[in-house]
Write a structure and sequence with these properties.
- The chain has a single domain (about 5-20, about 40-305), classed as Divalent-metal-dependent TIM barrel enzymes (TIM Barrel, Alpha-Beta Barrel).
- It is about 40% helix and about 15% strand.
- It contains nine helices and ten strands.
- The strands form two sheets. Strands 1-10-7-6-5-4-3-2 form an eight-stranded parallel sheet. The chain has a two-stranded antiparallel ribbon with strand order 8-9.
- Helix 1 (about 5-20) crosses helix 7 (about 230-235), helix 4 (about 125-145) runs parallel beside helix 5 (about 165-185) and helix 6 runs parallel beside helix 7.
């Protein structure tokens, strides 16, 4: 057995162990769901999330940034894609604006790798839940107009008086409804490991393996697992990834200080999973993004080519 086969087998066993830990929340037929099958070698496409410059999209910023200027920044720094976070679009958003964004990106030689919304899918039936589902469907429509193939979504949290099992069930049902809508427009939904009911690798694996849709996977955020070994959790989830967001820091359980992300290790676990898709830098650290983002994009390009 060569090293690559050994690592892949360990990842497979990790997935099985994590999923079985929460088996009571998973439908029997979901156990047949397998990691995404991809032929050929891994392909990592560099992108940048607009969230990296979140404080500069406000008009009150000392250095205000428009979405068009952000696309220019991505092109100037060698990105293949640009991830256009929904939070920073105008409130009076129109299809004309979205089409202009699509045109601008195309003329700069940049693909819109996706967008991201801030939803909660664990509300019980009622107006709040309907509003969240309708909002995600609206952004599915907007993603289709922009030509963005992927939307990062959240799962939610355990509400007061609710069990984890109930929260998972509510989340799965909402995702399936949105995924049915998304699939008709060719849009993938990526559930992010973003705390709440998906803070642990086993829980997000339970959910994604339970959703009955080929248009759903994991939006794998490298900075959002806070276990003793976040890299093992990332490796377990990587075979289900439809988008990857790289943070520049890792926060381990029991440690008060963050450690720099090991890009070589991230790249290796993605290659072991034969990941083919966008890998977007999502910069959240305190130092100035205008200085640090270009440096980290350069490091990511170098890590991809090793």
């Amino acid at each position: 057995m060569d090293y690559g086969e050994f690592v892949n087998r360990r990842v497979f066993l990790k997935i099985g162990t994590l999923s079985l830990a929460g088996l009571g929340t998973v439908c029997p037929q979901s156990l047949a769901v397998e990691p995404i099958e991809r032929t050929g070698p891994a392909r990592l496409q560099l992108s940048l999330a607009a969230y990296s410059f979140r404080q500069y999209f406000a008009k009150s910023s000392t250095k205000p940034l428009t979405m068009f200027q952000f696309i220019d920044f991505c092109a100037q720094h060698g990105c293949v894609g640009t991830e256009l976070t929904s939070y920073y679009f105008p409130k009076d958003l129109t299809d004309e604006y979205l089409l202009n964004i699509r045109k601008h990106a195309f003329l700069r030689g940049i693909s819109i790798s996706g967008t991201a919304v801030g939803n909660t899918f664990t509300h019980r039936p009622g107006p709040e839940r309907t509003e969240q589902i309708d909002m995600v469907k609206l952004w599915i429509d907007r993603a289709a107009v922009m030509g963005a193939p992927h939307i990062r979504i959240f799962a939610g949290r355990v509400e007061q008086g609710m069990s984890l099992a109930e929260a998972k069930k509510l989340c799965i049902e909402a995702i399936e409804e949105c995924a049915d809508y998304a699939g008709k427009k060719g849009i993938f939904l990526g559930i992010e490991n973003h705390g709440g009911i998906v803070a642990e690798a086993g829980d997000i694996l339970d959910i994604v393996r339970s959703v009955n849709s080929p248009w759903v996977g994991i939006n794998l955020d490298t900075g959002n697992f806070h276990s003793e070994d976040p890299y093992a959790d990332l490796a377990a989830c990587a075979p289900f990834a439809v988008n990857v967001q790289v943070k520049v820091e890792i926060h381990r359980k029991g440690q008060t200080k963050a450690e720099p992300t090991d890009l070589s290790r991230i790249v290796q676990l993605l290659r072991n999973a034969n990941y083919q898709g966008y890998v977007a830098l999502e910069y959240e650290a305190k130092p100035d993004p205008w200085i640090q983002v270009p440096l980290w994009l350069k490091r990511m390009r170098e890590a991809f080519s090793e």
